[in-house]
Write a structure and sequence with these properties.
The chain contains three helices and seven strands. The strands form two sheets. It has a four-stranded mixed beta sheet, with helices on one face. A three-stranded antiparallel beta sheet has the order 4-5-6. Strand 2 and strand 3 form a beta hairpin.
Length: 88
């Protein structure tokens, strides 16, 4: 299975973004999650990265990298281990 490595994650006023080593970028609007939609920009910037996604501890929200890139049409959902991951 081909794997795509996340090299950068950031937020703007309306979205969370992730970029892979091969230059793919995907985003998800904060409006998809009630807690993130209501959060301040400062709260949205306080996230933790795991191998498979993003966690906002103070907001109790999680986002899977693979889901972001599948929703963007850049990869297919994998049957096993996530195809898109973060490796520091």
């Amino acid at each position: 299975m081909e794997r795509y490595r996340i090299t950068k994650v950031w937020v703007d006023d309306a979205h969370v973004w992730a970029e892979t080593a091969n230059g793919w970028k995907a985003n998800c609007p904060f409006t998809k999650w009630r807690n993130l939609a209501r959060a301040t920009q400062e709260q949205r910037k306080k996230f933790l990265l795991s191998h498979y996604g993003i966690h906002w501890l103070g907001l109790d929200e999680d986002l899977c990298f693979e889901g972001m890139f599948v929703d963007a049409g850049l990869c297919k959902l994998s049957d096993g281990e996530d195809a898109v991951c973060y490796q520091a």
